[in-house]
Design a protein that fits this description.
The protein is an alpha/beta fold. The chain is built from 25 helices and 42 strands. Helices cover 35% and strands 23% of the residues.
Length: 972
């Protein structure tokens, strides 16, 4: 067994030096913290020593355990008592470490609250429960105090501690330097600034803050204190778009008791010394446990040689992929063996060839394939250099790919392919290309337009002999060619992916594009439809286990020509164990595999060299400005192993399956692209991509929460043959629609389908030009008159529907064969019904039926509460169109998603996902309208649940968060 580094001893030397240093008065220490971060360095030294002791000893014990497991796999003896001892040691070490870590975090919190200077203190706190970068943030760009005598004091932004500072924040507001705070699950929850006022004016003051509320639904609650006096608590009064200024009264008594650094410093130093004194004995105990375990195991491990798990290069086709991303690696042997024990079947990573060569020896030993990441920029030596020019010159990419294959695959059998990380086709990058390569783009665009010319001329769009790309819309005349440029980039990306896939396949390698989730802002930069053209595609979804992950993965999966892999963000995104588990389990529902990003945030031990890499000398922040300690929890590794283990057992029911949902929500990529005109947040006629994406996500949230199977798909990926599967189709404000798509929908409804449409659906052509009337006016039974605002409610069938007066609705005239079922409070039609052929149409004049009026309920990962009553309304429409489901779930509370799939062998797979945290689901029932008798069981455990016949029910065992139930035809 290899020797491990003795980082702990080095840590003690540094720590001892700190302890030997005479302690200056606490006030002096507080002042020094602003200059050389003396307290931060002492705290980091202690924290790193604690983590080092646990990390190094834990790895040694783990390696013994892994090797004993390998002995058992090979049929050799491994004493049960020793295995039990290892298990107990593992629990004891974690318990001790957790107790010390709790104290370390307490010191860290005091450090963050330590005033840098001044005798007075201003603190602003978010009262929401969200994590960093999720719901519940609040931002401000200035803070000042003013007294009636004319005295004013501006508190500089840079004087605020414990926050995210952005020198030029510009989303939905005038660009400005800004300080942001986040929910209570983050370490940037409360920001503090010290200040002095000499002399202190008499009387009350006003605190004037220019701020901005969180762009997510709902209003962030905040608390503001001047010293210990609370001057505000509640929902902040600021706008979501654009800065606004408010004044908060500050009573004179707030300045009676200054918050000196000395008072805070005394308490902090006492706790810090107490923490430092516990490090040495803790480290000694950790080392003793590891020494003892290694000594007792040595006779049983003598001569052990691993028998690697075999795999073939095309295993990805026959597996539900269980993958992990590695970048920073502390211990290569432990990483490889721990991933094997977790059931990992694929690794992808950012390692240089030199570092990969070290890992490859371990991967070859345990038998796990590796896919190397080719970056879009020169971040590391010898990493694949592909750039924007490759989209029109694949030969250039192939030449560098050969170097990549040679460096990584030459002598390492574990290397199986290449991944592209976040490939995007961006206008600014195209413009920066050398003249020759830019000309190739222009030539390719003109070739594309030549093929499109008949359709364009038929639509009245005249083309000049030569067309330069329209990258910015100056007038309405530019809109058609701007849209054509977006469609061209999509086609170019699709062709690029397909060509490189074929090239890699011929060379015997796998190609995996991991596309950005650009759907909320600019989907044409990394179109799901384009990337889905290759047999294997993935996307990174980092949204804290929220519904957006399920929504986006569902979209990608239903447009993919082959496998679609979910890349969740582990602790990088998830801030609680429930959210982490849900994020992984979403992959089992809506993907063909899970490729977890990234190992340091999911590893069993918090590696000191990664999490304490600056030693307290400066803030450790990630690319989103957050502290890495927000991203890691010791439970994550156990959850990872558990989910991967369950996925392995349920694999036959996760592969080669087909949805049997009869309800379909159609998403229009063209509508989303049109909303991105001029860039994210600014669009044609005020319609933004984010508005459309969020609205569709809101409709999706309302539907999945009702426990009825649902499919989600791009209308651009839908065919007439595929559409026949569904009984109900929902088109919520799909503004841009081609004549062919309109014809497909019309034929489907006349053939017996039930359509739910809203407001501006089909009002624009495929180039974003407004039609005089809906393309589907004959189907809707209404004609467009105008777009207005100012309505707030209607009632139908005992369902009260509430709407935001500031949002649009369509003013329409009604055809004789359509029935007005409800009217807005001003008398305009709100809900209409019409029979069409053998089908039925429901038409809502509200433009945004998925509009979020408030944030989701506490501990819910749904997309907030929708416009009141809309969810119930949509549920009623679905009941009208879908009489019965083949398999259904009863007694499910609001917020439980149900999806039903059918395997190639004829089994039915029921996925149940609870979008609420921390609750146990009991007494849910399962029934069926399938003929014959069906055996119901849990594929994770093999446990029989019951036998089911048509008209009967079985009660499901209690579960939390996620469960799969399988119905298999009973064999006589």
């Amino acid at each position: 067994m290899k020797k491990h580094s003795k980082r702990t001893a080095t840590g003690f030397m540094v720590l001892s030096a700190c302890l030997m240093t005479a302690l200056p008065p606490s006030a002096t220490f507080a002042a020094e913290a602003a200059e050389d971060r003396a307290l931060n360095i002492r705290h980091a030294t202690a924290g790193k020593a604690i983590d080092s002791a646990y990390h190094d000893a834990g790895i040694r014990v783990d390696l013994v355990n892994f090797d004993l497991m390998e002995c058992i796999r090979q049929g050799k003896d491994a004493p049960k008592a020793l295995l039990e001892q290892i298990d107990q040691s593992d629990r004891d070490m974690r318990r001790e470490w957790l107790a010390l870590d709790l104290k370390q975090r307490s010191v860290a919190e005091q450090l963050r609250m330590l005033p840098v200077s001044g005798n007075y203190q201003l603190s602003i706190q978010s009262l929401e429960d969200g994590p960093a970068s999720e719901v519940g943030w609040f931002a401000f760009r200035s803070a000042s105090l003013a007294w009636s005598d004319g005295t004013t004091l501006a508190i500089p932004l840079k004087s605020f501690r414990n926050n995210l500072y952005d020198a030029k924040y510009s989303y939905l507001c005038e660009p400005s330097a800004v300080v942001s705070i986040y929910g209570r699950q983050s370490t940037m929850n409360t920001t503090v600034a010290g200040f002095d006022v000499e002399p202190l004016p008499d009387g009350d003051a006003k605190l004037i803050i220019s701020g901005l509320d969180c762009d997510k639904p709902g209003v962030t609650r905040i608390r503001i204190l001047v010293n210990t006096t609370e001057v505000f608590k509640g929902e902040n009064p600021y706008r979501k778009k654009g800065w606004s200024e408010h004044a908060f009264p500050v009573p004179a008594k707030a300045f009676d008791k200054p918050m000196t650094a000395e008072a805070v410093g005394k308490r902090l130093i006492k706790d810090l010394i107490d923490l430092e004194r516990q490090v040495a004995p803790f480290s000694a105990r950790m080392k003793e446990q590891a020494d003892r375990i290694e000594k007792e195991a040595a006779p049983f491990l003598k001569g052990l040689v691993y028998k690697p798990r075999t795999y073939r290069r095309d295993d990805w086709q026959r597996q539900f992929i269980r993958g992990m991303c590695v970048g920073y690696i502390a211990d290569y042997e432990h990483t490889a063996k721990s991933l094997r024990e977790a059931g990992t079947t694929m690794i992808y990573g950012y390692l240089t060839p030199e570092k990969y060569a070290v890992l490859a020896k371990e991967l070859d030993r345990v038998g796990i394939p590796y896919v190397g990441v080719g970056w879009t920029r020169h971040k590391q030596p010898k990493v694949l250099a592909w750039d924007t020019g490759c989209y029109v010159n694949t030969q250039k990419l192939q030449e560098t790919a050969e170097m990549f294959f040679s460096d990584y695959g030459k002598s390492n059998k574990s290397y199986v392919g290449i991944a592209f990380d976040e490939p995007r086709l961006i206008d600014s990058n195209i413009q920066k290309l050398p003249k020759e390569e830019y000309s190739k783009f222009v030539a390719a665009f003109n070739d594309y337009l030549t093929l499109r010319r008949p359709s364009l001329e038929k639509a009245g769009i005249t083309l000049p002999a030569h067309v330069e790309p329209i990258m910015k819309i100056e007038s309405s005349r530019d809109v058609p060619l701007w849209m054509e440029w977006q469609m061209f980039k999509k086609q170019q990306m699709k062709g690029f992916f397909s060509a490189f896939w074929e090239y890699c396949r011929n060379r015997g390698y796998l190609f995996l594009p991991l596309v950005n989730n650009q759907q909320p802002v600019m989907p044409q930069l990394a179109s799901f439809l384009s990337a889905g053209a290759v047999p294997l595609v993935g996307t990174d979804l980092y949204n804290n286990g929220a519904l957006r992950e399920g929504f986006s993965m569902h979209l990608l999966h239903t447009c993919a020509s082959g496998k679609a892999i979910m890349t969740p963000g582990s602790g990088y995104s998830c801030k609680s164990t429930d959210r982490f588990r849900r994020s992984l389990c979403t992959g089992m529902i809506h993907a063909d595999g899970i490729l977890q990003w990234i190992y340091p945030y999911t590893s069993k031990y918090r590696d000191p060299d990664y999490f304490w890499r600056t030693g307290g000398k400066k803030d450790d922040r990630d690319d989103r400005g957050r502290e890495p300690f927000d991203h890691w929890k010791p439970e994550y590794w156990d959850i990872q192993k558990d989910v991967f283990g369950k996925a392995e057992k349920a694999e036959p029911y996760l592969m080669n399956i087909k949805s049997i949902a009869q309800t379909l929500l159609l998403y229009s990529e063209r509508t989303a692209i049109a909303g991105s005109a001029q860039g994210a947040g600014v669009s044609l006629e005020g319609r933004t991509t984010l508005d459309y994406f969020d609205d569709e996500q809101g409709v999706y949230s309302d539907l999945v929460a009702q426990s009825r199977p649902l499919d989600l798909c791009f209308i651009e990926a839908m065919s007439a043959a595929r559409l026949k599967q569904y009984r109900v189709c929902i088109l919520a404000d799909a503004r841009l629609m081609t004549e062919q798509e309109a014809g497909m929908i019309r034929d489907w409804v006349n053939g017996g389908g039930t359509l739910v449409a809203s407001a501006e659906t089909s009002l624009y052509d495929e180039w974003g030009r407004k039609r005089e009337d809906f393309a589907l006016a004959d189907l809707f039974g209404v004609h467009y008159t105008n777009t207005r605002q100012g309505v707030s409610r209607f009632d139908w069938n005992r369902i009260p529907v509430r709407y935001d007066k500031g949002q649009d609705y369509a003013q329409v005239t009604v055809a004789p064969d359509a029935e007005v079922l409800a009217k807005w409070d001003n008398g305009d039609p709100a809900l209409l019904s019409r029979k069409a052929g053998n089908g039925h149409v429901w038409f809502l004049t509200m433009r945004r039926p998925g509009l979020r009026l408030e944030r989701s309920e506490p501990k819910s990962a749904l997309f907030g509460s929708g416009a009141s009553g809309v969810g119930r309304l949509l549920g009623r429409f679905i009941e009208d169109g879908v009489r019965t489901d083949a398999v259904s779930v009863g007694n499910a509370p609001n917020g439980v998603e149900v999806q039903v799939r059918k395997t190639a062998a004829g089994a039915y797979v029921v996925h149940l996902m609870d979008w609420f945290d921390e609750r146990t689901l009991r007494n849910l029932s399962l029934d069926t309208h399938l003929a014959g008798q069906w055996d119901v069981f849990n594929p994770f455990t093999g446990e029989a649940i019951g036998s089911l016949k048509q008209g009967a029910k079985v009660t499901l065992p209690p579960f939390q968060m996620y469960q799969i139930v399988v119905l298999k035809k009973h064999e006589q």
